[in-house]
Fold these 4 entries.
Entry 1:
Amino acid sequence: KNQVEQSPQSLIILEGKNCTLQCNYTVSPFSNLRWYKQDTGRGPVSLTIMTFSENTKSNGRYTATLDADTKQSSLHITASQLSDSASYICVVRSGNAGNMLTFGGGTRLMVKP
Amino acid sequence: DAEITQSPRHKITETGRQVTLACHQTWNHNNMFWYRQDLGHGLRLIHYSYGVHDTNKGEVSDGYSVSRSNTEDLPLTLESAASSQTSVYFCASRKGPQGDTQYFGPGTRLTVL
């Protein structure tokens, strides 16, 4: 069964600090992996998309990495801001005929002043 | 600006009632999706549509139905609401190929008493 596991479930950091969120998946065959940011009371918004051949992709202060061999991804947030407080969801698309998405449970990040 | 909207944003209903949640997008996207989001679970796919008059069951389709009479709308109907269907429901749309970004609506919080 395709699964996406994220850690930690929740995280509290001080404003200005860096943090790294983890995503492990068992989806096979692999097509692509996205990181979404979901603010409280809002729908998820895509941050990055990575395909099999991409190891690193940045979007401002967000940097995603992908190791397709170990089926792991990480999202690194640099110089955190209060507005980074949100849930971050890892989503993996399978490469089979259905091309279905498997969603992780998310990491809830709180940035405190 | 093009957008995706959901209504109502909040709904309380009784067990056994029929409930319809609306989803409307103005991007002219062919692909539309309904998900539910519950604590302890990632987003789970309920139904999806790849075009007018096309509907498909997702991972958790029991007790739900959809219809696609035009490009812009994909209403989700709970035929006989159950307490287990208390959840936050997200609609999403995507222009075309699987690599395209899915854009999510703001969500509908449904409570079934």
Entry 2:
Amino acid sequence: DIVMTQSPTSMSISVGDRVTMNCKASQNVGSNVDWYQQKTGQSPKLLIYKASNRYTGVPDRFTGSGSGTDFTFTISNMQAEDLAVYYCMQSNSYPYTFGAGTKLELK
Amino acid sequence: EVQLQQSGAELVKPGASVKLSCKTSGYTFSNYYMSWLKQMPGQNIEWIGNIYGGNGGTGYNQKFKGKATLTVDKSSSTAYMDLSSLTSEDSAVYFCARQRGSLAYWGQGTLVTVSS
């Protein structure tokens, strides 16, 4: 199985901050990485698909980049409603696998 | 509007089985795969497997073979997951999610608690 190593595990941030997190795949997954946001008690929500494509209705402060084994997710201007856990997921091969998540907390 | 409505929370005894449902609406059920996923409290998300709405063809994560069985009822646009021989390690929230590469639509999740 492909291992997705996500970092950091958590971040203490302030509203307005630029937030960057990373995901490293244990083998080449092309551009087949998605990023999901999960708020407490809710289902995950797709934000970015195929590494860099913003899903319908997702604000442009959310961006993704990368290919191969290294991927980055950025929130350019952190808002209070962005407090959540963010997961990367590879859909290049079965079984789909997720990173362990990055939890964003207020400083 | 695409909707995935999952069945309610379950409290089941160790060794028992449980069948979860995911009733869909707002799209052509037979044109998509449905994935099922597991999330233990405060933990990572695991992909259990998927099933194609058109012909019921399935694919499983090796880890969940023998534990989970996926089926569909095309007439009601509903996907099901049977979980067998339940233990405390099966206590988790289980999600269904419509799959086309990415998982763009998710159900609200079903909490399964295994306890005597």
Entry 3:
Amino acid sequence: EVHLLESGGGLVQPGGSLRLSCEASGLTFTDHGMTWVRQAPGKGLEWISGISESGGYSHYADSVQGRFTISRDNSKNTLFLQMKRLRAEDTAIYFCATQFGDYWGQGTLVTVSS
Amino acid sequence: DIQMTQSPFTLSASVGDRVTITCRASQSINFWLAWYQQKPGKAPKVLIYRESTLQSGVPSRFSGSGSGTDFTLTISSLQPDDLATYYCQQYYTYPWTFGQGTKVEL
């Protein structure tokens, strides 16, 4: 059975940083591009970043470009999202998922507030 | 960026109804469209990809159609388990983008 388990969410002050992790099991991690999708409270889904199977290519939404960095460690079956210069509008549940949405984690909540 | 516009925002229907949700892209995305279902407090679940291909395990009452800029998700006979919010997503070009969602309620 496939599991994606996010961690690293929490409360952070505006301007602060946070690193999310997503540990994958039950699948061949290197067969899948990966994405991060977020959902602000009571709002819709927002695709924010994706990375290729090897980690050689990455893409970002305009809203996070230059502040967030996606990466992966294929030796540890883990996906990361480094978030810097956080803003109140970054408050959301952050989901990791395989590139085409076959598998999703349960999400981790990031709250940006003073 | 490609904008995805869904309609309606909310949809009230009864069990057994045929339900149709539309999604319009701001430019052609060929057939690179997926539909997701999300229930409260849960992660999204992919229903359809590549505009009309049913994800394994998804009931056949769900179907997708369209191409270019205009797409449709149809539920042929609404069931109580289908009460959820539905999102379209284009994956034709980065950044991938979602529609704003359509909430289906009784």
Entry 4:
Amino acid sequence: QVQLQQWGAGLLKPSETLSLTCAVYGGSFSGYYWSWIRQPPGKGLEWIGEINHSGSTNYNPSLKSRVTISVDTSKNQFSLKLSSVTAADTAVYYCARVMAAAKHKVYYYYYMDVWGKGTTVTVSS
Amino acid sequence: QSALTQPASVSGSPGQSITISCTGTSSDVGSYNLVSWYQQHPGKAPKLMIYEGSKRPSGVSNRFSGSKSGNTASLTISGLQAEDEADYYCCSYAGSVVFGGGTKLTVL
């Protein structure tokens, strides 16, 4: 049973860099993409981006300029950095495993089947 | 990439059936088996309920079913139970992952 455990700083000041890490336990790390999703208070889900074990990334175009997702295969971990945060980045941040199949960049299915419990990040001066 | 369109809220009485719609485009919802549905209870992480449009993960009740017609996907919950009260999100992919705005299900 795959489990995701996530952690990181919960309180940031504007302009600082958000940093979160997600560790994968109980299953294979390679062969999947691993994703970050966030949810502002009282609002819906927003996909941030994803990475695979080789370090190949895809980002939400609206956040791409500020987001870096990296991977540490030796520890079965992947991390999120979001720079220059503002109050609008206040949210619960989730990590998740992606199940997907694609050929020539055309996806046939895509979903997130295992989720971390979430980390609350607050940006306030 | 625009968000998928869901009704803000739906409600039903115990035992009844409800359907939540999710409207997108031919590039996302209307393409292959790219729709998934997630249930989220307050303060909890989302839980996968339907994937590839109509498949249920192991452990998810068969009261939950998914379907698609054109560019609109639907989640149907039959035999409503109090524990089904939650927020539901659809999700698809078209160059980037996109979620619906979420639907709050109230069990009366």
